[in-house]
Amino acid sequence: MSEQIAEAVRLSPSELRTLFLFESLEDDQLAWLSENGYCQTWSGGQSVYNEGEPATCFFILLSGTLSMHRRVENTEVETARTNQRGVYAGATQSFVKGLAEQPYWASVRAVTDCDFWVIAAMEFGEKFREWFPMAVHLLEGMTVGFRSSQAIIGQRERLLSLGRLSAGLTHELNNPAAAAVRATASLRERVSKMRGKLAHLATADVDPKALVALTDLQEAAVEKMAKAEKLTPMEVGEAEDQLSDWLDDHGLDDAWDLAPTLVAAGVDTDWLDEVAESVPATLLADALHWVTYALETEQLMLEIEDSTHRISALVGAAKQYSQMDRAAHQDIDVRDGLNSTLVMFKHKINESGKITLVKDYDESLPMIPAHPAELNQVWTNLIDNAIHAMPDGGTLTIRTSQDDGWVLVEICDTGIGIPEEMQQKIFEPFFTTKPVGEGTGLGLDISYRVITQRHGGDLRVRSHPGDTRFQVRLPLTEPPSFG
């Protein structure tokens, strides 16, 4: 290997000076770099180095396009792609003592044929510390301190976001789940009573033909219930009064209990007359109770079906939000991510009863290449901020459109607004307008980096009292240096 390096092509000091990283170095420093560094070529598709391998070299791109990847659980995620001459990778913090013994924190691949200038990390780090001792001390302190605080607060930001969404999702899941539990308990009681009435009818002196006719009437009532028109409260009251009078006239003591179920099923007095003609008068009460229990059973099963469908829809929205079992990078419809995020916030939006949600979607939006899970984190941050900005209520508007070759997503609120002097600072790390203890100051910083660095897009804010708009622009096609 040392022989290969000795025979490798080297860059002259003047050529090294054309790289922005070295443009201000002294001649003797450039001479040392020229002597100790060398050029190497990787073919398109070839790995330059892999995450987890010992960080032995520092690389500077001379030509071609590279891509950088990180492993997240069992998935490899592309974090960057660039063809900018002079960008560097590998042992980028070789000035920190002992870093050469640390692994590469990411993988780099040559997308096209790539030429790199390469130097051994250990030698480069030692010379860097010799040339710039004060800068090294400052950089070491800043690097370690910033990494530590950003890791701690970034983790807290993600946990807080997850906690807010989990609370809302739990509340939304609890409603249909509780309804299903109540309906199941009632269903068990009704089925038990229905079995009792059926047993009583079966042991009574009832003409089998009459029992068959009664069963047919029951089936007809169930079919009628499925097609029953929704009545107004006044119409429901009048119908219940009519059925109650009929039931009272025919000797049923609990007309008040039976009438609501029969009305909900679309039953009228003509149908009750048919039942009365099908069974002996002595068994009319048992027959009507049996039929009513069957109708209640059907209604309860419909309620359980509706509840389970709601639970399934919520789980589907949560899965869409988290992008479980999906590729990290894919073509998406941004409206899907917005809708799944809004489901997560449904409880928070409805909690106060003062926030009106308006969805103004352009139905002709095309699919765009993106990292959907990361975009959902952006929508979470922006929507949560919009809700927080309207403590006394207002209108939350989610708007999508096409804007001169971009997909434009606007998260708008009618809240208090952001002062003009703060609008240029809100995307900075750790800057927050929220009270102490309520914000980490990383939400918008994370959002900005996801949109600009991960998607090649743009994130801006336009704000004055009563109208604040966070505008996200995403490219219709994948830029060559992103992915």
Plain-language structure description:
Helices cover 52% and strands 19% of the residues. The chain is of the alpha+beta class and 483 residues long. It folds into three domains: 2-131, Sandwich (Jelly Rolls), CATH 2.60.120.10; 170-313, no CATH class; 329-475, Histidine kinase-like ATPase, C-terminal domain (Heat Shock Protein 90, 2-Layer Sandwich). The strands form four sheets. A five-stranded mixed sheet has the order 10-12-13-15-14. A four-stranded antiparallel sheet has the order 1-8-3-6. Strand 14 (458-464) and strand 15 (467-475) form a beta hairpin. It is elongated, with a radius of gyration of 35 Å. The protein starts with a helix and ends in an 8-residue tail after the last strand.
Question: Layout of helices and strands, plus pairs?
Answer:
Blueprint: H1 2-7, H2 13-17, H3 27-36, E1 38-42, E2 47-49, E3 57-63, E4 66-72, E5 75-82, E6 88-90, E7 107-110, E8 114-120, H4 121-131, H5 133-203, H6 208-227, H7 233-249, H8 255-264, H9 269-278, H10 284-322, E9 330-332, H11 334-344, H12 346-352, E10 355-360, E11 368-370, H13 372-388, E12 394-403, E13 406-413, H14 420-423, H15 443-454, E14 458-464, E15 467-475
Parallel strand pairs: 10-12
Antiparallel strand pairs: 1-8, 2-7, 3-6, 3-8, 4-5, 4-7, 9-11, 12-13, 13-15, 14-15
